[in-house]
Amino acid sequence: MLTDGSIDHASARIRALQYIPNFEGHGYRVSVIPRVPKRPSNLFGRYFIFPVLKRWFALKMFLFILLKSWDVVFIQRIFINPFLIKYLNNSSVHLVYDFDDAIYINPGRPSDGEKTKLMVRNASQVVISTDFLTPFCNSCGAKPVIIPSPIETDRLKPCEKSKTGISTIGWIGSPWTSVFLAVIEKPLQKLAAKYAFRFLTIGAAPDYRIEGVDHVARPWVFENENDDLCQMDIGIMPLPDTGFARMKGGYKLLQYFSAGIPCVASPVGINQTIIQPGENGFLAQNDEEWFDLLEKLILEPQLRSVLGQNGRKEAIATYSRDVCFRNLMEVVKS
């Protein structure tokens, strides 16, 4: 298993590392080599240990492929050396390539498009998170298997909500995805002029601010994730309607579902599939709809409860790790 990062890297943890106990439970031996190690918290580790480990992992990846015998090499999102791809193909090793974003669209690194094509064309099987990535795979001659990003329903669980106090609207993500919050800023500011509520962000850029809104910012910490989600009464996933955003896997919504949190999202990409308006959340197209739907959820706690319960059931039935792993096992077995 060759991953884009370690346990602190969202897509590596979600789409690869969390499956390891499942694989081992089915009698497989799994070796993992991340592209980069877990990011250290101190300066010495960041500037000395991290670069050394990164180079060691690159060498280890090369040696493990050349010197060991594998049944399957599962590659999560990264690009490997063309020589190694050719070697794996000549060795009749089955290569599974998994990616969950439009990694072939990167204005800063135009070569990523060709690198992604090379990986897809040479994989025994391609696994993607959303049907919106299918046309790209088809253009490379591949017929992908769609497996949503699995949610750990046994780790992210609903908790008792406070019956008093103001509502909390929440967002969870990463520093680079916090740019998408621009979509929601005006509706939140308009809402704040009429109602008292908290806006909680988990994992946003450290310098992110929203004027006129009671904003609480917390860093994302794996061990605190469920407790932080439990502070939310309403979850949001705003997205601009761009080519890249349409390819995203909707994982935020699954986090909200798993924690029993009703949500409002932009009707972009897979969000339109995950959200069943009025059943497990709502879709908001513009500033007016964002305001109206958030206002509705602030004023109707019973509706929040029903939507949250329905989302939890959907998370377990459709998006849980065990459900997604069964689909992945079919890929590996075939």
Structural description of this entry:
This protein is 41% helix and 14% strand. By secondary structure, it is α/β, with parallel strands linked by helices. The chain has two domains: 2-146, Rossmann fold; 167-319, Rossmann fold, CATH 3.40.50. β5 (125-128), α6 and β6 (145-146) form a beta-alpha-beta unit. α7 packs across α12 (287-299), α10 (251-258) crosses α13 and α13 packs parallel to α14 (321-333). The longest helix is centred in the first third of the chain and has 25 residues, at 43-67. It starts with a strand and ends with a helix. The model has no long low-confidence stretch (mean pLDDT 94).
Which SSEs are present, and which pair or pack?
Elements: E1 2-3, H1 10-15, H2 20-25, E2 33-34, H3 43-67, E3 72-76, H4 82-90, E4 94-99, H5 112-122, E5 125-128, H6 134-139, E6 145-146, E7 167-172, H7 185-192, E8 197-202, E9 215-218, H8 225-229, E10 234-237, H9 243-246, H10 251-258, E11 263-265, H11 271-274, E12 281-283, H12 287-299, H13 301-319, H14 321-333
Parallel strand pairs: 1-2, 3-4, 4-5, 5-6, 7-8, 7-10, 8-9, 10-11, 11-12
Structure described in brief:
The protein is 41% helix and 14% strand.
Tags for this entry?
single chain, six-stranded parallel sheet, Rossmann fold, four-stranded parallel sheet, 2 domains
The total of helices stands at: 14
Label the structural class. Answer: alpha/beta
Order of helices and strands: EHHEHEHEHEHEEHEEHEHHEHEHHH
Radius of gyration (Å)? 21 Å
Overall tally of domains: 2
